[in-house]
Design goal:
- An 8-stranded antiparallel barrel has the order 1-3-4-5-6-7-8-9.
- 11% of the residues lie in helices and 56% in strands.
- It starts with a helix and ends with a strand.
- It is mainly beta and 154 residues long.
- The longest helix has 17 residues.
- It contains 1 helix and 9 strands; from the N terminus they run H-E-E-E-E-E-E-E-E-E.
Length: 154
């Protein structure tokens, strides 16, 4: 997975450096969606005490736009990578089904973090070919704000 990220970053950097006028063809899209805690299903059933690497944690949640309107759904699948007596290191894959397409992302973070970055790996529909980041503001499992910063070549 690290190789995929590195390839995407290096490929983007080379494209900007070698192709004249590429910067003019880049489209930036920024938006925010929030999870609806009332609809969130958080499954911690696969995690024992003490936790073991590879144990699963899943979150399924409805998403709203900043005006409270329906924005889609999120499916987040995580595995425990490591743990301490007070914290878990999780490796998570996220799939956002939004009204105008899908976005796939990845993050690795400690559960004590409540503001962390995730990488966008691509999407479909209006998000076909995008790369970028998501700032995750995590108040509790199933209660998050996702701030998307996306780049695509026009």
């Amino acid at each position: 997975m690290k190789k995929r990220y590195l390839s995407a970053i290096l490929g983007s950097a080379m494209l900007f450096a070698l192709a004249p006028g590429v910067a003019d063809a880049v489209t930036v899209k920024q938006f925010t969606v929030v999870s609806d805690p009332a609809t969130a299903v958080v499954d911690l059933g696969g995690i024992t005490t003490p936790p073991l690497p590879g144990q699963p944690l899943t979150i399924r949640e409805s998403l709203k736009d900043q005006n409270g309107g329906k924005a889609g759904r999120a499916a987040i699948d995580c595995v425990v990578v490591a743990f301490t007596t007070a914290d878990l290191l999780l490796d998570c894959q996220a799939h956002f089904e939004l009204l105008d397409g899908t976005i796939d992302g990845h993050a690795a973070f400690l559960t004590s973090q409540h503001d962390y970055p995730a990488v966008v790996l691509g999407g479909t529909g209006a998000y076909q070919g995008v790369l970028g980041s998501v700032r995750v503001l995590d108040r509790a499992p199933g209660d998050e704000t996702y701030v998307f910063n996306l780049l695509s070549l026009a």
